[in-house]
Amino acid sequence: MSPRSSAGFVLVSAAALTATLATPALAAAPSAAHTPAQLTQAIASHESHALHGLAQPGKVNATVSSTNWSGYAATGSTGAYTSVTSSWTQPSVSCSSATTYSSFWVGLDGYSNSALEQTGTEADCIGGRATYGAWWEVLPASESAYSGVTVKGGDKFTATVTYSGSRFTMTLVDSTEGWTKTTTHAGSSGFKNASAEVIAEAPEVGGSVAGLANFGTVNFTGAKANGSNLDTYSPNEIVMTKSSSSAVRAQPGSISGGSFADVWKAS
After folding, report:
1. d(CA 79, CA 206)
2. β partners of residue 63
3. Rounded to an integer, what distance in angstroms lies between the CA atom of residue 150 and that of residue 148?
4. Are 40 and 213 in contact (CB under 8 A)?
5. Cα distance between residue 43 and residue 226, in whole Å
6. What pLDDT score does 20 carry?
7. Given this model, what pLDDT does residue 19 score?
8. φ/ψ of residue 7, rounded to 5
9. What is the pLDDT of residues 66-80, one digit of tens each?
10. Does domain 36-264 sit in CATH 2.60.120.700?
11. Contact yes or no for 66/240 (Cβ under 8 A)
12. How many Å is the Cα radius of gyration of the chain?
């Protein structure tokens, strides 16, 4: 082979190499562990959102602590609340190998009794993979996942629970993805409609309070009960703490005009 033909071979090979490196088809695909999953009923059926470890249960217009709720609860007598609503942006979670959970919801009852009618979303880390979903729940049954929907970090949600004509209606709207889910139910046995909540939570999973996924900050806006800003009812501020100590897991900021930020502190 002549020097000229040899040089030509080198030039062609270099061009081919450049084209190969630039071909998108050969770019590394994201692994499944880095692609968010969607909540399934198999996962949801092990979750529940009842209040745990409430300290100072009799206090009114006060700061109290719980081992799994963080947010605000307006309390009153039986029949005091017939609607609750709020909006938020779905948090994103960055996951390590630990399995942790977080939920964001509105509900009636549940603060001072065992009834609870609610709907919301979650951002979990399961097997090192972010998992997002939407659900409703009426205690004592476990969570029910909404089927046929996609939930992503950054989606804009509005959740509403109302009571009218002996039925509860739970509505969740994802204005980013463009879907709405509505469920009607007779409610929990012995419901009282004595409280209205807007909550960030470490849910109960398999009978125990789960580790709290690092959701960063979730901003609740338009939080209302009976059509009025939640703060007009002088609600209790609920700080989530560890069961074995007073270490804070999540904490709400002050509420004003129906808006507050809830901040993750520890799992």
Report:
1. 32
2. 237
3. 7
4. no
5. 33
6. 40
7. 42
8. -65, -40
9. 999 999 999 999 999
10. yes
11. yes
12. 24
Phi and psi torsions of 201, nearest 5°? -145, 150
Q: CB of 252 within 8 A of CB of 73?
A: no
From residue 248, how far is each of 61, 125, 145 by CA, in Å? Answer: 20, 20, 29
| Torsion 171-117-73-126 (CA) sign | negative
Cα–Cα separations (whole angstroms), residue 7 to 10, 12, 13, 33, 70: 5, 9, 10, 46, 71
- Longest Cα–Cα distance in the chain: 98
Residue 89 main-chain phi, psi, to 5 deg: -95, 125
Cα–Cα separations (whole angstroms), residue 35 to 29, 30, 31, 67: 10, 7, 7, 30
pLDDT digits (tens, 9 = 90+) for 121-162: 999 999 999 999 999 999 999 999 999 999 999 999 999 999
Cβ–Cβ under 8 Å, residues 39 and 131: yes
SS3 track for the chain: CCHHHHHHHHHHHHHHHHHHHHCHHHCCCCCHHHCCEECCHHHHCCEECCCCCCCCCCCCCCEEEECCEEEEEEECCCCCCCEEEEEEECCCCCCCCCCEECEEEEEECCCCCCCCEEEEEEEEEECCEEEEEEEEEECCCCCEECCCCCCCCCCEEEEEEEEECCEEEEEEEECCCCEEEEEEECCCCCCCCCEEEEEEECCEECCEECCECCCCEEEEEEEEECCEEHHHHCCEEEEEECCCCCCEEEEECCCECCEEEEEECCC
Convert the pLDDT of each residue in 2-49 to its tens digit: 444 444 433 344 444 344 434 444 334 444 556 889 999 989 999 999
